Amino acid sequence: MPVESTFSDNKETLTIKVLGNFDFNLHKEFRDAYAALQEPVTKCVIDMNETDYMDSSALGMLLILKDHASSVGAEVILANCKPDIKGILSVANFDDMFEIEE
Amino acid sequence: MNYKMHILIVDDDATNRFVLGTMLKKFGHTSCSASDGYEAIEQYKLEKPDIVLMDVMMPGMDGLEATKQIKGLIGDEEYVPVIFLTALSDEQAMAKCVESGGDDFLTKPYKKDLLAAKLKAHIRLRILHDTTKRQRDELRAHNDKEHQEQLFARNVYQNIIHQVELKRPNIKYSMSSMALFNGDVLLAAQTPMGKLHVMLGDFTGHGLSAAIGAVPLSSIFYTMTAKGFAISDIISEINVKLKNLLPLGIFCAACIIELDYSGRTLKAWNGGIPAAFLINKNGISQTITSNNPPLGILPPENFKSAEVLFELGENDKIILCTDGVTEANNHNGEMFGTERLKKTLTDNFSDSFDKIISDLNTFTGESEQTDDITLIEVQTDSEFEQKNITNNNTKTKTDIRNNKSDWDMCLEMDISTIKEVDPIPLINQFIIDLSCKSSCKHDIFLILSELITNSIDHGILQLDSALKSEEDGFLRYYERRKEILESLSSGLVKVHIKNESNNNNNGKLTINIQDSGNGFDHSGLPKKLENNLNPSGRGIPLINKLCQSVIYKGNGNEVEAIYNW
To answer: Would you say residue B157 lies in a domain?
Structure first.
């Protein structure tokens, strides 16, 4: 599966890992993955350690996720981004809108 | 499955025909028959059976030839299986049956269950074939209709986007879209002051859904540019509009620039466009980096419309492109990338545009295009500035307003208004509605905007134009202007315009402007435009030239200009 989601033991952190190319083809899987983002989750980590590329529709999906997360009072963190991904996030100035973690 | 089929039995033996006919009747099918190949072809044409049972050896025309001809009549559009009835068992003979177009075999003597099973299988195939064909035809019709509608919509779309504005001697551009509609949008238009606005946008996705947002975007861009609004105002307006219109997750990466040919400055706002450069013969001189999120994401209260100001060198060129260029893939899945683009730009100044296109084509080779690709180059040389006001086709208005009219107009702006509102677009709106020739409108616009700018900049803000003569002067001038404007708590500009028309469709415009500043010594003003080679101070001599008279009053904080039109 190109999108894997796991919960922390205390069920408060949802980690969504995206593998390979993060683009429109993952739309459904990504949406299914964050559907699990409900109370008591307070933190949603998008792990991009194995994400090779992201396009503008992926940026769009992140915005939708953020909107959904804030509706349940959770924060979104983008983690382990490779340099290429960081470049795309910074051109779109998403680094101001999302917390980016090393 | 209980489909009733009409079946053609071909056999020279009457008993066989009777036996088969009886079996078929029991299964619930109807049949017709023929006793040789010739008759079989005639019957096929007449009865249009769903399935043919064909004997191989018959006098006259045998089953092989008849099958060939019948299959010829059926063509590819329909599936009518031909099942050979045969006592043959050697493989060579069977191969001949297949060659002639047969679909199956039934060996004599006939077994009821076997016949039933074979018919069932072929009926199933026939139904599948019919369904597929019907769906294919529906899909084809749907596609044709869709294509027609899209062509129509694209026609309308292109009229709205109005790309004829891009046909300027100093602009080279290339747009290559993946679908009939382009998710990239490229616009250019000239302001009433002769500055050039160019906007490059890249909507999320491709095709119609991506292109739809370009309609409000371009309409705002053209309307506001024609009225003389600054790019920061235009970009804010577009952002609000897109934020309200587009669904969450869809947005528009954009770069908008304002090129001031004679002032040799460039103002730019970049939100999400990866590659925007100023280049000269030494390579890339400056990069217009993206320091904002794309349009349509932030609510107006968080949106930052502040533009970045660049000083232009003599022959600088501006290069903008969408990520379709930098992210174009070659057959190894490698991307063209910013570094390759920069290298191409550094190595080729005079033919940079063509070189990027050819380098990109060489790089991608036969690889499939995966995004809309847009590239634009703008030459900034001052000789390209077009002096006349564009699109001022106000003939109908003129006809209505031909009658003699005298009027007075007064505009007062206090400091809070000056901080928030750019008065120039307001003035321009008023001039557009005047009934004089467009060349006069240009003059009036110039006079008003120069005088008002002088009152604000030099009267109220007390800025010194000499700043502009220094290196990076324009940049420092604008920064200083911003600082002072923000710190001021009082100030007033009064604009009074009076028009007196005469009977010959001409008139006299008296413009009086007062400011609350300390005034200036107007005795030593330069009188002749021709002698002035400084980057600043052209304003007053220019107005002197256009007006019948320009008189400074009091301590220099009041000016009265008379213009005959």
So the answer is: no
For the segment B454-509, what is each residue's pLDDT rounded down to a tens digit?
Answer: 888 888 888 877 776 666 777 777 888 888 888 888 888 888 888 887 766 778 88
Say if A67 is an interface residue toward chain B (CB within 8 Å). yes
CA B239 to chain centre: 17
Burial class (CB in 10 A: 0-12, 13-18, 19+), B20: buried
State ipTM.
0.75
* Number of domains present in the structure of chain B: 3
Residue-range definition of the domain harbouring residue B508:
395-564
Instruction: Answer yes or no: are the C-beta atoms of B312 and B258 closer than 8 Å.
Output: no
Classify residue B179 as exposed, middle or buried by CB count within 10 Å of its CB (0-12, 13-18, 19+): middle
Q: Domain limits at A33?
A: 3-101
A27 by DSSP, 3-state: which?
Answer: helix
Residue of A nearest to B254 (CA): A92
Is residue B113 domain-shared with residue B226, that is, in the same domain?
no
Contacts of A60 in chain B (CB under 8 A): 204, 248-251
Of B248, B272, B371, the CB nearest to A92: B272
Name the residue in chain A with its Cα closest to that of B202. A56
Cβ count within 10 A of residue A7: 12
| pLDDT 10s digits, B48-92 | 999 999 998 899 899 999 999 999 998 888 899 999 988 767 788
Cα separation, B135 vs B140, in Å, equals 8
Contact A64/B291, CB-based, under 8 Å? no
**Residue A24: CATH number of its domain:** 3.30.750.24
Alpha-helical (H) ranges within B48-99 are 63-74, 91-99
| CB neighbour list of residue B355: distance below 8 Å, 6 or more residues apart | B344, B347, B348
Please report the number of interchain residue pairs, chain A to chain B, with beta-carbon separation below 8 angstroms: 51
B184 touches chain A (CB under 8 A): no
